[in-house]
Design goal:
74 residues, alpha+beta, GMP Synthetase, Chain A, domain 3, three-stranded mixed sheet, 43% helix, globular
Length: 74
């Protein structure tokens, strides 16, 4: 089972990189070890958001938090 506290800490570590480009990220839920997030600000409508989500954010969370299967935007 994925720890919500560990996921929140990892999100806090990636947040500054999103904020540098006018975006942000919010943890919504964790369901069956899949992290559900909401992209905000510039990230919400960016055409590269899905690529950033899957390659950067999901990759980082999977390395940082044992058990994370995937990250999905809601």
């Amino acid at each position: 089972m994925v720890s919500k506290a560990e996921v929140e800490k990892a999100i806090e570590e990636v947040r500054p990189y999103l904020q540098m480009d006018g975006g942000d990220i919010e943890l919504v839920d964790i369901v069956d070890d899949v992290v559900k997030v909401r992209l905000k600000g510039a990230c919400a409508h960016c055409p590269m958001a899905q690529l950033t989500l899957k390659t950067s954010i999901e990759g980082y969370l999977r390395r940082r938090v044992p058990g994370v299967k995937a990250v999905e935007a809601v």
